[in-house]
Amino acid sequence: MSGQRHIIVGISGASGAAIGARIVERLAEQPQCAVHLVVSGAAARTLHAEVGPDSLARLRDLATHVHDVTDIGACIASGSFSAAGMIVAPCSIRTLSAIAWGQLDNLLVRAADVQLKERRRLILLVRESPLHLGHLRAMTQASEIGAIIAPPLPAFYLRPQSLDDVVEQIACRAINLLGVAGLRTNAREWDGSGDCNLRPLMK
């Protein structure tokens, strides 16, 4: 489809694979999005364990393009490829550190580095707790070079009723952080009155 916005979704090997899966599902619902999916080997194991044995195959079917994590010559590895941004969800500490210090040994990290050098949005849903000083320094370094660090924390003020509600809110928040005009979600958002009404995160 002409005029589609290319959005890259990387899923790395931290716990929380359902969030990355939900981001792919949400983006795939929007005809103006072309979803480029890259999944690390560790993430494939985590998807199997946390989401289900058929989850990776389902995400591959939903994505517009699926890239092998070892294919450093893929289109998303080039700055000349016009991507609208990238989300890494979840982002493992290993992936965070590789992005922070330019250790570009796989396509997921290379694609993330491209977003930074081209001054595009890179959203990292860093998933780890507790954090030691090395983790914090890696997050500082990634932030200083342009990444947005967005730990996948529940919005308790929205009073989630289920784990699915938590996953949905975090996934939609990550999509919102891309700042891409025209992307719409129907996630609950705080309205300032104490009530959490259903309305789009982006207009």
TrEMBL record:
HAMAP family: ubiX_pad. Residues 6-169 form the Flavoprotein domain. The keyword Flavoprotein applies. It is an enzyme of class 2 (transferase). It holds the Pfam family Flavoprotein. The gene is ubiX. It catalyses: dimethylallyl phosphate + FMNH2 = prenylated FMNH2 + phosphate. Belongs to the UbiX/PAD1 family. This is Flavin prenyltransferase UbiX. InterPro entries: Flavin_trans-like, Flavoprotein, UbiX-like. Its EC number is 2.5.1.129. Keywords: Flavoprotein, FMN, Prenyltransferase, Transferase.
